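Run log // design_07
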């Protein structure tokens, strides 16, 4: 989205990027001030980049930048400022601007800045996706540990009942062995939880893969144990 009150800018941008627009590589929407920009952003949730001038009527570019950066999903914003306006440029960067351009706009610089910014946006989206996948895998690992612990607890309870009845027809471990197994199981479960907690870091692509591998391994163990646990 390009936000600028200059009436000729829309035609210039459309002309300079006509090949990319025709090829479907990029789509532009335009707004004349900050208020219209917020309304346009609400109608186009797929927006990835905002290019905003500072001096505009109704709502200036710095106020728009602040509103965009405090939203639930901040939009990556590039600020356009007059050449040499270092105060506003520094203010914009401090408020979360990704980059800035100076007027008069150099369209080669504009094209390079848009390409760089869109690469950043794509990388950020991929990182969020990997984080969500890793968090789901981590939560599933914790649930799987709970499942294994509950199944083992039920097995021990069944052994305890048989040991107390003194059934001779079904072989059971001595009471001391059952107690030792329960203690060992509890210690192992606590240790596994501790390892998972210490290993949990902001995910990278390898962490998402590792968490998924752990989950698959635990699922395999659970499936292989279901028979013996049910008939022990």
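design_07 sequence
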């Amino acid at each position: 989205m390009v936000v600028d009150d200059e009436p000729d800018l829309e035609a210039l941008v459309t002309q300079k990027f006509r090949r990319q627009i025709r090829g479907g590589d990029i789509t532009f929407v335009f707004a004349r001030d900050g208020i219209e920009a917020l309304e346009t952003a609400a109608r186009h949730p797929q927006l990835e980049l905002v290019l905003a001038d500072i001096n505009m009527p109704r709502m200036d570019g710095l106020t728009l930048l602040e509103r965009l950066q405090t939203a639930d999903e901040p939009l990556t914003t590039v600020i356009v400022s007059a050449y040499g306006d270092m105060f506003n440029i520094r203010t914009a960067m401090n408020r979360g601007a990704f980059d800035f351009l100076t007027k008069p706009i150099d369209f080669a610089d504009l094209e390079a800045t848009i390409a760089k910014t869109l690469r950043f946006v794509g990388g950020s989206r991929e990182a969020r996706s990997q984080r969500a996948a890793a968090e789901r895998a981590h939560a599933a690992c914790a649930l799987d540990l709970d499942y294994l612990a509950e199944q083992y607890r039920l097995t021990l309870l069944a052994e305890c009942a048989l040991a107390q009845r003194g059934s001779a027809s079904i072989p059971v471990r001595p009471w001391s062995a059952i107690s030792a197994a329960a203690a060992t199981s509890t210690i192992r479960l606590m240790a596994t939880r501790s390892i998972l907690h210490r290993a949990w870091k902001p995910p990278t692509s390898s962490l998402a893969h590792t968490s998924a591998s752990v989950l698959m391994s635990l699922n395999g163990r659970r499936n292989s144990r279901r028979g013996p646990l049910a008939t022990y």
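The domain at 2-105 is CATH 3.40.50.2300 (Rossmann fold).
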